[in-house]
Amino acid sequence: MSSGFGLIVRFELRGDDSAAAFDELVSRTLAGITAHEPGTLAYVVHTVPDEPNVRIFYELYADRAAFEAHEQQPHTKHFLAEREQYLSGVQVTALRVQAGKGPVSA
């Protein structure tokens, strides 16, 4: 089986107006991911109960090549170009699957 590749991304949004617009951008991006990315095994967006202007993304790819294919998709390029106007900060943590239960194992 593949080793898997993942990311956790913490987005800090500028404010309530930014949050709604960012969430709409994410919704459109997810439609493209769902339709065109079989190597993207999970792409989950979380809100944080006590931090309304924070979004946490959990992304899991079959392998590094699937992540690189994701980065080249038109919907992803659009998201990357548009997101900056809504953000006050971004923190990215790359992950490598070590152990667990799911579609990708170590």
Automatic annotation (TrEMBL):
GO MF annotation, one? monooxygenase activity
What name has this protein been given in UniProt? Antibiotic biosynthesis monooxygenase
Q: Which InterPro entries match?
A: ABM_dom, Dimeric_a/b-barrel
Pfam families (UniProt xref): ABM (PF03992)
Xref: PROSITE patterns: ABM (PS51725)
Q: Which UniProt keywords apply?
A: Monooxygenase, Oxidoreductase
Taxon lineage: Bacteria, Bacillati, Actinomycetota, Actinomycetes, Kitasatosporales
Where in this chain does the record put each ABM domain?
A: 5-95
